[in-house]
Design brief:
By secondary structure, the chain is an alpha/beta fold. It has four helices and four strands. The protein has a single domain (10-109), classed as NAD(P)-binding Rossmann-like Domain (Rossmann fold, 3-Layer(aba) Sandwich). It has helices at 19-31, 54-61, 77-86, 101-109, and strands at residues 10-12, 42-44, 67-70, 90-93. The strands form two sheets. It has a two-stranded parallel ribbon. It has a two-stranded parallel sheet with strand order 3-4. Helix 3 (77-86) runs parallel beside helix 4. Residues 33-108 form the Gfo/Idh/MocA-like oxidoreductase N-terminal domain.
Length: 110
């Protein structure tokens, strides 16, 4: 953000109750170590919510050309990646990208 390369940072999961701990960890490992680091991030769902479909709200809030990095259980990769791709976002997915060949081909075609 200091170099105007990154604007919004979002974090998405199922259980928002985990986000305060994650933010504390980021502060300890990054914010307290490096000067002038803006660790502000939006979270989906909110800190007091549980929502298995929070990725839909997150993807809807970002713009075409934004990036989604998907670190979720393997069986959720396809639905989340496809949602983001259909919204014009770039995606990076941890391996395995998907569990079925037909899902891989569908993502490649999208």
């Amino acid at each position: 953000r200091r170099r105007s390369k990154v604007n919004r940072v979002g974090m998405c999961g199922v259980n928002g109750k985990k986000f305060p701990g994650i933010r504390n960890h980021m502060q300890k490992c990054i914010g307290d170590v490096y000067a002038d680091m803006d660790l502000t991030c939006e979270t989906f769902p909110g800190d007091d919510q549980v929502n298995p479909k929070a990725y839909e709200d997150a993807a809807a809030s970002f713009k075409e050309g934004d990036v989604a990095v998907i670190f979720t259980p393997d069986d959720t990769h396809f639905a989340i990646a496809m949602e983001c791709i259909q919204r014009g976002m770039h995606v990076m997915v941890t391996k395995p990208i998907v569990q079925k060949l037909e899902d891989h081909l569908a993502l490649a075609k999208a």
